[in-house]
Design brief:
Helix content is 51%, strand content 11%. It has 287 residues and is of the alpha/beta class. A 4-stranded mixed β-sheet has the order 1-4-8-7, covered by helices on one side. The chain has a two-stranded antiparallel sheet with strand order 2-3. It has a two-stranded antiparallel sheet with strand order 5-6. Helix 5 crosses helix 7. The longest helix is centred in the C-terminal third of the chain and has 28 residues.
Length: 287
């Protein structure tokens, strides 16, 4: 990606120089439960955060701001995140603004280790996530090292895909899709509830593809090989791949994000179409 000199978003909240404020400190049991639930059981990180917060017996308080020191590598990641967020703002304004209202831009929070959110205490070990309650995306930039080293998905466009996916969740939140999905999940058994979560996640992948289509048409942003980087990232973080790497086998009924093949296919669908109409995963018989 060519990001030098491009517009950066104003919607960045940098908490990397802040320590987390707590009413009593996050218990190790709550942390381990949340991390294990997210990585190994396939539970939505937002749900795991809420569980951890409840078990911990207190809400997080806003951390105090402090000076931010960063390595050259982290500074480059920060710039990329800010440029990508700005480009998603341009894309979704162009697609969603109408006489009925304008696209409401999310805030992206940079943090280290842990941070308070409206969905509970955010932990770096859980990876990037979106909290609909405060309309913020949370990311510890150290995740990008894991994306390259643990998941084998290097490259700046792979990093951009991660941000675009979380922005996709914001779009779903604004359109009421997330709330409708959660309403449909009520009373369902775990397998059927998980199947709806998969559809929501695959739609966010498709919406990330819609952004990638517009970024591809944005002068000077996308370079040769960028699309392939995003495909590798989508494939590397499929539920089946993650579970096989963690435990040697996959449990399809526990999937909440979709298989590697599904994630790649829906990202590609959004990229090829360039519009939201291609992303109705809920209507697809076999997502």
């Amino acid at each position: 990606m060519r990001i030098g000199g491009r517009r950066q978003s104003n919607n960045i909240e940098d908490r990397r120089g802040a320590g987390i404020g707590r009413k009593g400190g996050l218990g190790i049991g709550a942390i381990l439960l949340a991390v294990a639930a997210s990585y190994f059981l396939g539970i939505d990180p937002r749900t795991a955060l809420q569980v951890a917060s409840q078990l911990d017996g207190g809400a997080a308080t806003q951390p105090a701001a402090g000076p931010v020191t960063e390595s050259d590598r982290e500074a480059a990641a920060r710039e990329l995140v800010s440029v990508v967020l700005a480009d998603t703002e341009d894309t979704w304004h162009s697609l969603l603004d109408s006489p009925r209202g304008q696209y409401r831009e999310p805030t992206l929070v940079l943090f280290r280790g842990s941070t308070p959110t409206a969905c509970g205490t955010g932990q770096a070990a859980m990876g990037p996530f979106y909290c609909g309650a405060d309309e913020k995306i949370y990311i510890d930039l150290g995740f990008y090292d894991q994306l390259q080293q643990r998941f084998g998905a290097p490259g700046d466009f792979a990093q951009a895909y991660v941000i675009a996916h979380e922005v996709g969740h914001h779009v779903q939140n604004l359109m009421g899709i997330s709330d409708r999905m959660r309403e449909q999940q009520r009373g369902l058994d775990e397998a059927r509830a998980n199947a709806l979560s998969v559809k929501l996640e695959l739609q966010a992948d498709c919406l990330a593809g819609v952004w990638a289509n517009h970024a591809n048409r944005s002068a000077g942003l996308v370079e040769a090989g960028d699309f392939e980087e995003a495909i590798r990232a989508a494939s590397a973080i499929g539920d089946d791949t993650l579970q096989k790497n963690a435990q040697g086998y996959a449990v399809p009924d526990s999937f909440t994000h979709g298989t590697s093949e599904q994630r790649v296919r829906w990202f590609r669908a959004g990229f090829e179409a360039g519009g939201i109409q291609a992303c109705n995963t809920f209507a697809a018989q076999a997502p």
